[in-house]
Amino acid sequence: MSLFELLLDIYVKYGFYKEKLINIVRKGKEGADEIKAMMTGYRNNPPEKINNSKVIMVNDYETQFSHDILKGTKTKITLIKSDVLQFFLADGSKISVRPSGTEPKIKFYFSVNTKLASLDKFEETEKILDKRIADIIDNMKLA
To answer: 13-139 sits in which CATH class?
Structure first.
């Protein structure tokens, strides 16, 4: 069995995950202010939906709280404090946002997943996941 076939078997058993990172560069003081404003906006007014999928949990590593929106509860995050936000969606997608500590940019990490019905559906399913990432980026007005 090839490595690719082994990976496909894992995808069929556990789900097919795809990830993507985009960097948005904003130079100068105005750029730094814009990045800070983006983080403040996401932190103070998190989106209710992203790409038509309800945001069900928000992790804020700066305030060190996780907000379970479905249950209406907040729990303490016991990891190192960091200027990072994560949005978890009802469809299983996750978006993580953080400003760079060394460069004038903000980074967006996207993770999407779905079931892979069978080995022969790999390419079709991969296109669906690629489109979901592209649609999230478009919906968040990051492109």
So the answer is: alpha beta
Residue 107, exposed/middle/buried by CB under 10 A (0-12, 13-18, 19+)?
Answer: middle
DSSP strands (E only) in 9-100? 16-25, 49-50, 53-60, 65-68, 73-76, 85-89, 94-99
Q: What does each C-alpha distance from 57 to 48, 54, 70, 85, 120 come to in angstroms?
A: 10, 9, 8, 11, 34
Closest CA to 128 of 117, 114, 138: 114
3-class SS at 95?
Answer: strand
38-54 confidence digits (pLDDT tens): 999 999 999 999 999 99
Cβ-contact 105, 25 below 8 angstroms: yes
